[in-house]
Design brief:
heterodimer; A: alpha+beta; Methylamine Dehydrogenase, Chain H; 4 domains; five-stranded antiparallel beta sheet; 18 helices; 27% helix; B: mainly beta; Ubiquitin-like (UB roll); five-stranded mixed beta sheet; 5 helices; globular
Chain lengths: 786, 419
């Protein structure tokens, strides 16, 4: 028995509510033991009990660790107690009595301690009474502040170790002699139950019988102490079980807003509390990481979310915003096309004039195969009365068509791009900023009697030369409009070209099949004389010309009577010449004979009096030719395309596709990288030769065939003359920066020429220095615009 | 209507610099809608109190001629109607009267009047001398190309000397004996490479300057005996003269030359610039850039302003003293075609005449930019040159082969007397 109790000391309640409770319970248990001891049957096998106890203890041995973990203070004490146990076990076999004494001693000492905590006994009751534990109240013991808090505490098991079956209804064991099994799987025999007579005898004999109760769990009898009875009484009378409890104790505010100087508990802080906690740090870092990654929210954020949730909530009135169809039908319905109101013709009894007569009937029948072309989709009919109107014969068909319409009708309105037209127009500078350019007609040069085909300006800019269908060439003074000289030729003058070399005074005139080189005898007299000398005699040439060239071209000096007029050299071609153009240096000139087949373009060299036929094959009807201002290149325009040839390498460089029906003229930018082409189909094409073979820009400014086009040599201007009698001046800026595209701005339409025989302006040419343009017209005039 | 005129009355002070027309300096309240006619009637009424005869006046409001209604004028000038307005009145310059028509064989491209003679240059390569009564004195052939400019060097009772330039790249110096009516070509000035378009004789008549299409400005001696020694002997005999000085600077043809004083020349060119040359420096003193080719430029010694005719319909007034460059002081609108020629009056500070390709001559007051004082009609073709060197006569030559003489009826002499 003594041993049992000793072992019990070690056992702690695993579910101990708190320290104080466990302490008190433990101390109480010791007392219980005595109590139980007293009612115990002397004949009981103790060994069995012992085994059970041991078993129990080993089961809960883990709790020992737990206990010590919880309160460091216990550690030393527990060890001491365990030492005691060891000792007890050693003595086990030797002397039971001793142990009992020991036990008693410790029990008494415990009792001593218990005296200070009388309430502890009440707690015991709860254990002992088992089922009635619901009335048991754990009363916190009043601690003596002078003593250390856990001074007297030691724990022992408060569990009733005699019950090995657990908290089960005990009547399950009613039919058995035993209750549960011990460690060695032997039955624990129930205490013997006396019969009624025994009970009665005991009732009579035992004065304490009335205070003896049976423990339902173990089936043993327990003798209630006076305190227990008092407690029961107090509980029954609904008073506070603890008699010591003073309900009206003065209130001590232990936890207040006031910061006390001394700590409430005088246990020194554990060392641990001074060391930064690693696990805490880990936790914190994990939280910081979570915050950073957004997995976790700070309390403020959480609070804000909550706040937001609490605010007004919005929700979709319709399912989604994107489901526009539903809303569109409400706001933007596609209205059905309006039908015309029925007219008289649709009446069942139309006035007779609405009925078809023979002619209308014929027309109706004519469109039998194309009913949509009919004026009416039905034939008006007349009935005497509404009763006679038959059923609508086309009802089914109309229904069918209606369904077809519905099937094909658009489900949604086609969204038109709402682009401002202004936005699409490229931003062009205002013409006012692009001055100077010609704006008004300033002078009219009158004197020709037939349409003036061509005009050319002296390189210095004092005179112009014009060639006309009246078979004359006229030289004019620009500033006054005075005709200085008139040179008559034998044929219609198709083209005139003043030699661009200022050191020479020559005009090339294409008249009929002859190309005349005329010395105009204006300007510097010295130059005039020099030119005359130069052209006076042919240089001896040792090159034998091929038959092909010989039959095409003959060079000769002019006849004396023509010499007087100024004609110096005559180059007779085999076909009418249409165009003549100079190379920039003034030594070469090219002529075009559209009817010349594969010999339609010729290049003449003035200094050697030689001609060349650059092309052996005809690539088309050549319209005009042009020399590149800088490079040895030659532009040949056929009806549809322009070919650029390298004259040195004698090969085709490029072919420009104009995509037009008939080219009328060309002009090259003085820098040589841009080409303007005029066509008879009202277009003007700007080719950037570096860019592509297709036009950089196509201008449709004229209302009729464009006859001529010209770049200004100095100003960024170009002009075009057309059969609609207009000269259109445009700004054509070419930038040195290769990345910047040319800027083209139409500036001014000058329309003062008179119309004659479907012809308007035939040729335009710029003054070499001033921003002035000359135009020749079918009205026999040359006009100067400044 | 009331609102339109509605400026109500304006307080005016009438002033004049012509003392004999002075009226008492008291403010008059007149209707804002009055024009020159009403003002004239009013002023004449005032003057008649003094017993003077009726005179036509022109009215200057803030240095500009009043042409329309007074209120419009003020509104345009942004002048408050509350202020007292000073109106200066001057006797109206009387209309020049067409006096004569001198018929030539070809276009007349140059005219110059001096004393009672009129010198004309013609496109048929001849120079003609006429009296201002319209009598043809002499036809001088000599040039081989149309004459472009003429100028008198000196003129006295016995001899007249003049210079002519032509498209044949020469200038010719002529001496004309009035009594015997014989003319001598003193020398031929060769040096220009293109047509010589303009000529001007220095104030001391010792030199003359020519401007040519070859962009050069050349100075020549106007002495009868060219003071070049030795090597020039042969040249002298042949009468060929070489330039004393050649000034290069223009990029295009020089179309106008004029002496501003003894050592300063004004040139106008097709390269859109006016240049003032200092002959001592032999360089450019001032350059005024314009934006049109200049056909003619004329400098007034009286008000030191330059008026130009350029390749448009406008006449422009420049002040050569401003440093800012091309500050156009005023623009005179009125012609309908290129203005070819322009000339200041030599006696009237504010007047100049212009001749244009719209067959008209116009007489301008430089204070009246909106409208000319008078249109001098008569030419049937382009006017090529105009001259007002003789204050009594405005002479112009044109492409209708005539020279028109307009008598400037205002006796400038009278005017001088009143001064």
């Amino acid at each position: 028995m003594a041993k049992k109790s000793a072992i019990k000391r070690k056992v702690k309640a695993p579910e101990s509510i708190n320290e104080q409770a466990s302490v008190s319970e433990q101390s109480e248990n010791e007392e219980d033991e005595d109590l139980l001891q007293a009612v115990k049957d002397p004949g009981e096998d103790t060994t069995d009990d012992e085994g059970i106890d041991q078993e129990y203890q080993s089961d809960t041995s883990d709790d020992l660790l737990f206990e010590s973990d919880e309160e460091g203070n216990y550690l030393g004490r527990k060890e001491a107690s365990s030492g005691e146990d060891e000792q007890g076990e050693e003595d086990d076999n030797d002397d039971e009595e001793e142990e009992d004494e020991d036990e008693e001693e410790s029990g008494s000492s415990d009792d001593d301690a218990k005296d200070d905590q009388p309430s502890g006994s009440k707690a015991t009751l709860s254990k002992t009474t088992g089922d009635s534990s619901n009335i048991a109240v754990a009363i916190p013991p009043r601690r003596d502040p002078s003593k250390p808090e856990y001074e007297n505490s030691d724990t022992s098991d408060e569990e009733d170790i005699r019950n090995t079956v657990g908290n089960i209804p005990m009547h399950w064991y009613d039919e058995y002699k035993h209750i549960g099994y011990d460690w060695d799987a032997k039955k624990i025999i129930k205490p013997p139950k006396g019969d009624q007579i025994d009970d009665f005898l005991r009732k009579i004999e035992d004065p304490d019988f009335w205070r003896t109760v049976k423990d339902p769990q173990t089936g043993q009898e327990v003798l209630l102490t006076d305190e227990d009875i008092a407690l029961i009484k107090r509980v029954n009378s609904a008073r506070i079980p603890n008699p010591e409890h003073n309900e009206y104790e003065p209130w001590i505010e232990w936890f207040s807003s006031q910061v006390e100087k001394m700590p409430i508990k005088n246990v020194p802080d554990h060392k641990r509390s001074f060391l930064p906690s690693v696990s805490e740090k880990k936790k914190v870092s994990r939280m910081v990481h979570a915050l950073k990654m957004g997995w976790m929210k700070t309390t403020e954020e959480v609070e804000r979310d909550k706040q937001q949730k609490r605010g007004p909530k919005f929700y979709m009135l319709w399912e989604t915003d994107t489901g526009r169809e539903h809303i569109r039908r409400i706001h933007d319905p596609v209205s059905a096309p309006k039908r015309d109101l029925p007219g008289h013709a649709e009446s069942y009894n139309p006035p007779p004039e609405y009925l078809f007569d023979a002619k209308e009937m014929k027309e109706w029948l004519k469109y039998k195969d194309e009913p949509h072309k009919r004026k009416l989709h039905f034939m008006p009919q007349k009935f005497k009365s509404l009763r006679e109107v038959p059923a609508y014969s086309r009802f089914l068909r109309e229904r069918f068509l209606r369904c077809l319409d519905l099937y094909l009708c658009p489900r949604a309105k086609r969204v038109k791009l709402n682009i401002d037209a202004e936005y699409l127009i490229p931003k062009l500078p205002s013409p006012r900023d692009l001055q100077p350019f010609p704006t008004v007609e300033s002078l009219v040069y009158r004197g020709h009697t037939d349409l003036v085909r061509s005009v050319s300006v002296e390189p210095k800019g004092e005179y112009i030369v014009s060639g006309s269908d009246d078979k004359t060439v006229k030289i004019w003074e620009i500033a006054t409009g005075r005709c200085i000289r008139t040179i008559e030729t034998n044929d219609v003058v198709r083209c005139v070209a003043w030699c661009p070399n200022a050191k020479l005074s020559i005009i090339a005139v294409a008249t009929g099949t002859r190309l005349l080189l005329i010395n105009p005898k204006v300007g510097d007299k010295l130059l005039v004389k020099k030119t005359d000398d130069l052209l006076a005699e042919a240089p001896s040439s040792d090159v034998i010309e091929s038959e092909r060239i010989k039959t095409a071209v003959q060079w000769s000096n002019a006849e004396p009577e023509e010499q007087e007029k100024g004609v110096r050299v005559v180059i007779t071609h085999f076909k009418p010449i249409r165009q003549v153009t100079w190379h920039g240096r003034g030594d070469y000139l090219a002529t075009v004979m559209p009817e010349g087949a594969n010999r339609s373009a010729l290049i003449h060299q003035l200094s050697k009096r030689r001609s060349q036929i650059p092309f052996s094959k005809s690539k088309g009807l050549i319209q005009c030719v042009l020399f590149h201002p800088v490079k040895p290149c030659f532009f040949v325009a056929t009806q549809h395309n322009i070919r650029i040839y390298d004259l040195v390498k004698q090969e085709l460089i490029k072919k420009l596709l104009t995509n037009s029906k008939w080219i009328s003229g060309m002009s090259i930018h003085p820098k040589g990288d841009n080409l303007l082409v005029s066509t008879y189909d009202k277009k003007m094409l700007w080719f950037d030769l570096d860019l592509s073979t297709k036009p950089y820009q196509t201008m449709r400014l004229h209302r009729n065939a464009v006859r001529s086009i010209a770049f200004h040599l100095r100003y960024p201007l170009f002009a075009s003359g057309s059969d609609d009698q207009a000269v259109i001046v445009s700004h054509g800026m070419v930038y040195n920066d290769l990345l910047q595209n040319p800027l083209i701005v139409p500036l001014k339409k000058l329309q003062t020429h008179e119309k004659r025989d479907e012809f308007g302006v035939l040729d335009v040419n710029w003054h070499p220095v001033q921003p002035w343009i000359f135009s020749t017209g079918a009205d026999c005039t040359i006009r100067l615009y400044t | 209507m009331e609102a339109e005129n509605g400026e109500g009355q304006v307080q005016v002070h009438l002033k004049t610099k012509q003392e004999h027309y002075a009226v008492p300096d008291v403010p008059y309240a007149i209707e804002g809608s009055v024009s020159t006619t009403e003002l004239n009637i009013f002023l004449n009424a005032l003057l008649q109190n003094k017993g003077a005869a009726s005179v036509d006046f022109d009215f200057l409001v803030f240095d500009e001629y009043l042409r329309g209604r007074l209120c419009d004028h003020l509104r345009e000038k942004a002048i408050s109607f509350e202020d007292a307005i000073e109106i200066e009145y001057v006797e109206r310059f009387p209309a020049p009267e067409p006096q004569d028509c001198l018929l030539h064989d070809d276009w007349v491209s140059a005219v110059k009047a001096s004393g009672k003679w009129i010198l004309t240059g013609c496109y048929d390569n001849t120079i003609n001398i006429w009296t201002n009564k319209g009598k043809h004195i002499l036809t001088i052939p000599g040039h081989t190309a149309p004459i472009k400019a003429v100028d008198w060097l000196s003129l006295d009772e016995v001899n007249g000397r003049f210079v002519s330039t032509s498209q044949d790249q020469t200038a010719m110096l002529w001496q004309w004996n009035i009594d015997s009516n014989a003319v001598d070509c003193v020398s031929v000035c060769k040096g220009h490479e293109r047509s010589v378009d303009s000529v001007a004789v220095s104030p001391d008549a010792q030199r003359f300057a020519t401007g040519s299409w070859d962009t050069m400005l050349k100075l020549w001696s106007a002495e009868l005996e060219d003071a070049v020694e030795g090597s020039a002997k042969r040249a002298k005999e042949s009468g060929v003269r070489t330039p004393k000085m050649t000034l290069q600077g223009h990029r295009e043809s020089i179309s106008a030359v004029q002496w501003m004083d003894g050592t300063t020349l004004l040139t106008g060119s097709w390269d859109h610039t006016l240049k003032v040359w200092d002959l001592n420096l032999e360089g450019i003193k001032t350059e005024i850039s314009t934006n049109k080719s200049i056909f003619d430029a004329n400098f007034s010694k009286l008000n030191r302003l330059i008026v130009t005719a350029s390749a448009d319909k406008n006449l422009r007034l420049y002040d050569p003293r401003t440093n800012q460059g091309s500050v156009v002081r005023n623009t005179y609108l009125g012609h309908n075609a290129w203005v070819q020629t322009v000339m200041w009056s030599t006696t009237e500070e504010f007047l100049f005449v212009s001749g244009s390709y719209d067959n008209q001559n116009k007489l301008w007051d430089c204070r009246s930019p909106k409208a000319p004082l008078y249109d001098l009609l008569g030419h049937g073709e382009k006017v090529l040159d105009i001259d007002w060197s003789n204050p009594k006569y405005i002479v112009s030559g044109g492409a209708d082969n005539t020279v028109r003489v307009f008598k400037s009826r205002k006796a400038t002499v009278d005017h001088m007397e009143t001064k």
